[in-house]
Amino acid sequence: MAALHTAIAIVAAVVLIIRFKVDPVIALVLACLYLGLAAGVGVEGTITAVTEGFGEIMVDVGLLIGFGVLLGSLLHAMGAFSTLVNALVRVVGARRLPYAMTAALSTIFPAIYVDVQVVLASPLARSAAPRIGPRGLGNLAGAIGTGIFSGYVFVVPGLAAVSIASLIGLPLGTWLLLGIIIGPVTALVTTLLFSLLVRAGFWRPERDEVQPEDAATAPELEEEDEDAAAEPARTPEDARERRLPPLGVRLLPILVPLVLIAAGAFVEPFDLVARAEAAGPAAQSAVSTLTFLGDPNMALFLGLLGAFLMARRVLREHRTSQALTSGFRTTGEILLITGVGGSLGAVIEATGLGDVLAGLFTAEAGLPVVVAVLLAWVVAALLHLAIGSVSVAAIAAAGIIGPVLGQLEVAPIAIGLAIASGAMFALHVNSNFFWMFKSLLGLTTQGTLRSLTLVTSISAVVSLPIAIAVALVA
């Protein structure tokens, strides 16, 4: 019965969100309450699961999300990401732009939320598309879609990546070392496969893009004016831009934390603490410092502090405060939906569904490793199809599967990667991002299905064998 009530709760949440336009937070809390009471968890047990599930995930990822969003907001205000995108055009040329764009989105851009990423990337795509060819917008739309979400689920500090790693009890540094490879590889392979489809005639601009006669319904996007860009600065805003540090300096608040987290990941696997104790006080001090600075919360805080000091110098107090205010507003929304997703996972765990899933994960004796990875992928994919949120699907799937990991003969990292992979599958019309993507890029609904929905599906399929390979060798 736990499985049936879980299915009813998820379907009810989806109906509330899609049909009755209920806010996802409210819908998910109602689903938690129904599931707990209907499955026999009890009034007190349900409330305890909801509150403790929320609190546990906040302990794990609350500061990481807050620091990451604020860091991204400050760098966005300083133009770091838009400058990076424009630099890619100059360096690689327009025709290679889809690959450069998806590589950047899947490596550096996960520091900012997905909605901001598409806002930053879409004007460039619209302006660069004619230089790529008649189907250039289709190519760039696919590259943007897979780049954003491959980074979001695999690359730290992407919200889904951080959440999955925390919920399955995996050191964030270990996830970082694998994710920084798997994310870009998935995005680049997907971009290549999608471009082959576009060349074969899969993309038809007259059907998939908003045409000039429909311009009244399309958003106004600024086009890049190369001649204007070459003129000397004449406005106070241009003068501010001249004071901005070089791009490499502006990206340091992201790059330095990533290096620190990666370095900190070596402490436990290589037993550096024990080796330092044997080597003497100096070595102990060095390892303690590395452990302190390599802690993800501390590393991201140092990045945030660096971005804040940089922003105060080049943007002054008022614009820095504006950027932080925007970041705080976004942080509150993300933390709430993330925490409620953790509550749903906790209630599902309290129903005893974990025992049922444990039976599913151990039912096949022939290929237990492969079956476990496939089941983790399917659970996350089904949740995403139903709920329409990559992060909620990833968090809920990790919450469901995490409690049974100890009963599996599979490396937790492989299960985590499978969850991340499945959570991308087929982003479609029940996602707010779908409609934002459609409007900002000037696509029809059919064109958005043919780009965003398809590339997230391809990315999920492309990354699944990687998760299986990790499971077999780990």
From TrEMBL:
<dbReference type="Pfam" id="PF02447">
    <property type="entry name" value="GntP_permease"/>
</dbReference>
<dbReference type="InterPro" id="IPR003474">
    <property type="entry name" value="Glcn_transporter"/>
</dbReference>
<feature type="transmembrane region" description="Helical">
    <location>
        <begin position="175"/>
        <end position="198"/>
    </location>
</feature>
<feature type="transmembrane region" description="Helical">
    <location>
        <begin position="369"/>
        <end position="398"/>
    </location>
</feature>
<protein>
    <submittedName>
        <fullName>GntP family permease</fullName>
    </submittedName>
</protein>
<dbReference type="GO" id="GO:0005886">
    <property type="term" value="C:plasma membrane"/>
</dbReference>
<feature type="transmembrane region" description="Helical">
    <location>
        <begin position="449"/>
        <end position="473"/>
    </location>
</feature>
<feature type="compositionally biased region" description="Acidic residues">
    <location>
        <begin position="220"/>
        <end position="229"/>
    </location>
</feature>
<feature type="transmembrane region" description="Helical">
    <location>
        <begin position="27"/>
        <end position="50"/>
    </location>
</feature>
<feature type="transmembrane region" description="Helical">
    <location>
        <begin position="247"/>
        <end position="267"/>
    </location>
</feature>
<feature type="transmembrane region" description="Helical">
    <location>
        <begin position="410"/>
        <end position="429"/>
    </location>
</feature>
<feature type="transmembrane region" description="Helical">
    <location>
        <begin position="57"/>
        <end position="79"/>
    </location>
</feature>
<keyword id="KW-0812">Transmembrane</keyword>
<keyword id="KW-1133">Transmembrane helix</keyword>
<keyword id="KW-0472">Membrane</keyword>
<dbReference type="GO" id="GO:0015128">
    <property type="term" value="F:gluconate transmembrane transporter activity"/>
</dbReference>
<feature type="region of interest" description="Disordered">
    <location>
        <begin position="209"/>
        <end position="240"/>
    </location>
</feature>
<feature type="transmembrane region" description="Helical">
    <location>
        <begin position="335"/>
        <end position="363"/>
    </location>
</feature>
<feature type="transmembrane region" description="Helical">
    <location>
        <begin position="140"/>
        <end position="169"/>
    </location>
</feature>
<feature type="transmembrane region" description="Helical">
    <location>
        <begin position="298"/>
        <end position="315"/>
    </location>
</feature>
